[in-house]
Amino acid sequence: MTRRQHFVIILILGTLSTISPFSIDMYLPGFPAIANDLHTSISQVQLSLTAYLVGISVGQLLYGPLLDRFGRKLPLYVGLVIYLLASIGCAMSTSIDMLIAMRLFQALGGCVGLVAAQALVRDLFPVNQIAQVFSLLILVVAVSPMIAPTVGGYATVAFGWHSMFIILAIITALILVGIYFALPDGKQPDDSLSLRPAAVLGSFFTVLKQPQFLTYTLVGGIATSAPFAYLAGSSDVFMNIYKVNEQEYGWIFAFLAIAVIAPTQLNRFLLRRFSSEQIILATLVYQSVVGLVLVAGTWLGVYGQYGLIAVLFLFLCGQGITGPNASALSLAPFARHAGSAAALMGSFRMGFGACMSAAVSVLHNNTAVPMVGVMTSCAVSALVILLIGQWIIQYRNKQRAIDEPLTEVLL
After folding, report:
1. Quick one: which of 79, 7, 147, 101 has its CA closest to 339?
2. Phi, psi of 212, rounded to the nearest 5 degrees
3. What pLDDT shows up at residue 146?
4. Which pLDDT score is estimated for 387?
5. Which superfamily does 9-185+201-404 belong to?
6. Concatenated DSSP letters for 263-278?
């Protein structure tokens, strides 16, 4: 693979991975306008975000077996066309119920990009390069929260909130062209893999039996749910409590996105000296401490707008490190079932994200406490699960090392 091909593949896989983040981030500045136009409340509009996350969670479980059975490209084309049509449906929504339904279909189509991108990384790159490739993908993905809310804010003011979904449809059409002309096929279709429910569940069960997958998928899923709590609550916190406008919110969101981008690239250098396991542990300890400071300061009312932004920045710095390392460790044990593994991993993450965004909506009390409280609970819970999971993995490895020589002697 030449450097040019490597760059093009990373770029396409990155854009595939940005479909869902862009779909979430871009319409956040439009929440007040959507609520006003559809004669509903901000908390009801937040449910359209929850519906999107639920759709991603469920949809990824469907695409995993399809990507293993039919290869990578055919399910990609089908999913992205569904997403494109649903985006147009979102733009034409005349009620909050219609918008929520269209967002669900949009997610069911667009989530194929998340699963396919991760499976293709496993197909096209050596195992020892996966964590670094994921770091590069996150660099591309991290551009979306810098651009999307700003574009969404200006588009909402200039053309109305409907225009955001038309922009998403156009972007998806361009991605489809790039996939057709420049993306390698990856794993070929496997006719031996059945799509019968029992066989599909058997593939998922095979993946779930792997302790390394289960540990790091749970850790990654819970830890990376913190930004979803932030996504669900930030527009209300900054636009309703601190009274910033759509454009100002877009710039705040873009600034906080830097907290994810910079550590993503730092991870590439950390991997030269430390293992992914060590990096995740240190990062979650850091986030848990910062999160507790964030909750305490918010509860006591010591942060103003800029103080809150500063501590949120420090907390979000950990997200760009935990995500790629957890993904690499989750997928490393698999080759044949990489699509199913990627689907389960992505489904867990988005499922947890949906729960956290819903929790922020349910706990809404016109303060920032629900948002920062849920964010911190994600980091602390992930740290506890990591410590337990690493102990189980080490124990099983020791038992295997003891049992194997005994088996050889008996034979």
Report:
1. 79
2. -65, -40
3. 65
4. 92
5. MFS general substrate transporter like domains (1.20.1250.20)
6. HHHHHHHHTTTS-HHH
